[in-house]
């Protein structure tokens, strides 16, 4: 094990897969010499050259369409989408082309491409560069959606994504790129649809995605000081979703809070709560609760922006009320 940053873990995942398979290449704005604005792909162009690390024009629909075409002809492209907010620009290529080709061809065609992009507020990037749009993508049949929470998770999930024969979108929290964590030196993969139970608990289940996993972990520490035992689960992928692990945890604890940084209405939290309600209702001791971002554009004002997303203190406060029966 080494302690490396999220950026290094992602860089290693891409480099290892490019060495493993010559059909893997990466394309996007500023991925070559600049190494992306977050320096995640730094050094790749020196090893693999400009034919496999391609700087593109500022035309997201154009290079996403090229990636779909390349994947249909035997390549495995990685599309670097500079900000998750630009998902809207590639939605036709992603939702109407990549997601549907396998079905529309009767299983004869596959679209093995990965879109890696980011999400998350509290980075002072304002309303058009701070959105968390994972629910939009997960709503589309035919696309897999991964939401890593640590350097270990991002490397294992990215390697799995690159080798998957389906289109995959991997969302990375912008605030996590310099996060350090243990990552094995040997090769490993994390299967999709397999949640990770980070800590066991008996009183309430805290279910998080991406950086909200750390929020849940912090909340669990606050709750422990109050004598409340919280089980913390990292969802890892929302499409496919590991319903079994989540349901079994809620059956045990009788209570749950689902935390995601996307807007709360019609979002990831709503879907997970609905599935838990369908499968674990008669085991519940309190209503299932969800916490997402406020249903407002993300403000540029730091004081206002910080109020829009879930916090550990807020999660812990809700958990106490659920456990004690407060209203």
TrEMBL record:
Gene3D superfamilies listed in its UniProt record: 3.40.50.920, 3.40.50.970
Cofactor(s) recorded in Swiss-Prot or TrEMBL: thiamine diphosphate
Record has Glycoprotein as a keyword: no
InterPro entries listed in its UniProt record: THDP-binding, Transketo_C/PFOR_II, Transketolase-like_Pyr-bd, Transketolase_C
SUPFAM superfamilies found in the cross-reference section: Thiamin diphosphate-binding fold (THDP-binding), TK C-terminal domain-like
Residues covered by the Transketolase-like pyrimidine-binding domain: 4-179
This protein's UniProt keywords: Oxidoreductase, Thiamine pyrophosphate
Entry GO MF terms: oxidoreductase activity
Function: The branched-chain alpha-keto dehydrogenase complex catalyzes the overall conversion of alpha-keto acids to acyl-CoA and CO(2). It contains multiple copies of three enzymatic components: branched-chain alpha-keto acid decarboxylase (E1), lipoamide acyltransferase (E2) and lipoamide dehydrogenase (E3).
NCBIfam families associated with the record: PRK09212.1 (NF006667)
UniProt protein name: 2-oxoisovalerate dehydrogenase subunit beta
């Amino acid at each position: 094990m080494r302690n490396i940053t999220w950026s290094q873990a992602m860089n290693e995942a891409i480099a290892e897969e490019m060495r493993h398979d010559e059909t893997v290449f990466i394309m996007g704005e500023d991925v070559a010499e600049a190494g992306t604005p977050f320096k995640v792909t730094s050094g790749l162009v020196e090893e693999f050259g400009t034919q496999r690390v391609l700087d593109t024009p500022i035309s997201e629909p154009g290079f996403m369409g090229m990636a779909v075409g390349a994947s249909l002809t035997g390549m495995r492209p990685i599309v670097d989408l500079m900000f998750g907010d630009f998902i809207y620009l590639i939605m036709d290529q992603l939702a109407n082309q990549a997601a549907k080709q396998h079905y529309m061809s009767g299983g004869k065609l596959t679209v093995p491409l990965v879109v890696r992009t980011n999400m998350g507020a509290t980075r002072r990037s304002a309303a058009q560069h701070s959105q968390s749009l994972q629910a939009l993508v997960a709503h589309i049949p035919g696309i897999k959606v991964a939401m890593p929470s640590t350097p270990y998770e991002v490397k294992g999930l990215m390697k799995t994504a690159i080798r998957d024969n389906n289109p995959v979108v991997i969302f990375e929290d912008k605030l996590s790129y310099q996060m350090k964590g243990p990552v094995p030196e040997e090769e490993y993969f994390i299967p999709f649809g397999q949640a990770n139970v980070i800590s066991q608990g008996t009183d309430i289940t805290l279910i998080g995605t991406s950086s909200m996993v750390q929020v849940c972990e912090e909340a669990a520490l606050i709750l422990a000081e109050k004598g409340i035992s919280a089980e913390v689960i990292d969802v890892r992928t929302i499409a496919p979703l590991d319903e079994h692990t989540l349901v079994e945890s809620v059956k045990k604890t009788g209570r749950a809070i689902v935390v995601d940084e996307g807007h709360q209405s019609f979002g990831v939290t709503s879907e997970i709560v609905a599935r838990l309600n369908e499968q674990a209702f008669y085991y519940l001791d309190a209503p299932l609760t969800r916490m997402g971002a406020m249903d407002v554009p993300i403000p540029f004002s730091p004081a206002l922006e910080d109020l829009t997303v879930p916090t550990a203190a807020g999660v812990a406060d809700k958990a106490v009320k659920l456990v004690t029966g407060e209203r």
